[in-house]
Amino acid sequence: MLSYIAYLPGIWAYYVAQNQSVTKAFIWVYIPTLLLLPDYYRAITPGLPDPSFNQSASVALFAVFVMKGSPGYKFSLTDLLVGFYAFSVSFSEFLASGYADAQNLMFFELTSVMFPYIFAKSLIEPFNLRYDFAKSVVLCLAFVFVMNLFENKFGYNLWQAYLGMFFPGQGLGWITTFRFGLARAAGPYGHCLLDGVIMAVGYRLQRWLQWSDAWPAKMKQLAWAPWFSPAQIFTLMILGGVLTTLGKGQWLAGIVAAGITIIGRSKQRVAAMTAVIAVMVFIGLPLLLAFLSYASVGRKNAKDDNQETAAYRYELVTEYMDVASERLWWGWGLMKWPEVPGFESIDNHFLLTYLNHGVIALTLLLAIMLGMMVRLIIHGMSRPMTEPKGSSLAFSLAAIFLMYFIAVATVAMMNQSCTLFFIIVGLSDAYLRLSTWDGDQGGGKTRVEPDNRKFKFRKVL
Questions:
Q1: Structure confidence by residue, pLDDT tens digits, 352-378
Q2: Residue 164 gets which letter from DSSP?
Q3: Does residue 58 contact residue 108 with C-beta atoms inside 8 Å?
Q4: Torsions phi, psi of 182, nearest 5?
Q5: Is residue 356 part of a domain?
Q6: What is the number of domains present in the chain?
Q7: Cβ atoms of residues 353 and 92 within 8 Å
Q8: Which residues contact 28 (CB under 8 A, 6 or more apart)?
């Protein structure tokens, strides 16, 4: 019964959505629930799927969203891609395990993939709430950063210590790892690498807010730091959050992805893109070849822990490709593939998806991730230069997709990192469909629609 506290965010989301607005419930109830409460604690409910905190909020919010006529929603082709992806994952698990064992994964795909995607595409851009959404994410992650500092120092996860009392026997598989003599902060996300991916998303959103002049010049709550503006403080906090995870793969992904935002901030975008591509070809390609040579020596011949980790990930792909191809289309089912001795952890989300759910799910995921990134870059290149400089949302969102693509090649995209990915997909889909403004407002002001009336005479009664 203690685990039933996971239903409380659902009750609160329902109340706010019914009595105030669905948009407010999404941005100020659902997003904080997603980013501040662990996804590995669940309300054990006999005869029903076992929801986590954010899943209970997702169900309640979706119920009100439908009752109020699905405000802001409009069908797009991306809906089919996301819907088929969620279906393929669910169906593959049904084939492998039957409904009784597959129901929780099916429930996850519905409440943590489809519903958040629909919320994001319906409730952010159509209601001009892109600043509010990004600020909600940044404020939540700034709080997580403060908790991460405690975890770095003492190796003590506060979420597991205090929330774990309500969920006996749950979440025990998430353990603290160490690097450079410090605990690697995991926050409420289970693993430090998942924390790193989510913080990297928050960093890109915060930089976009900063470039857009979306934060006020002064905030009473931040008066204790008079030498820095609120935007600078939040940027430093979210960057600190990235660093507290001590995840080198996520750091590399964020640095490479920043190349896209350089294009968006340049007055000569074609020249900037040419330069970025040239760097990737003439510097990135040799570095990639050098890394493959570095990683292909085998774990037995590795000279240090870093090379051993790289060799493990290299060998992982070569060892498991044949296993995955045995059940090419629908996969083996969630974590049911035959384990190759010495390779217990699959530290590559693309390989893990291939093993678990087959080539159909993997192809759909890559189509969503890479397709959306390319569409955003093309859209951004076709638009005039924004003011303030760098406030084009297209390039920041494209950078997030590139960051995800690189980062999840070294870690599974699961729990909140998966849900946040599909929220970004929903936001991007609506942005590409609706955006008629980009960086011309600043200061978090309400978007002003252009006056397209043919005759603009003033009427006086």
A1: 999 999 999 999 999 999 999 999 999
A2: G
A3: no
A4: -120, 150
A5: yes
A6: 1
A7: no
A8: 16, 136
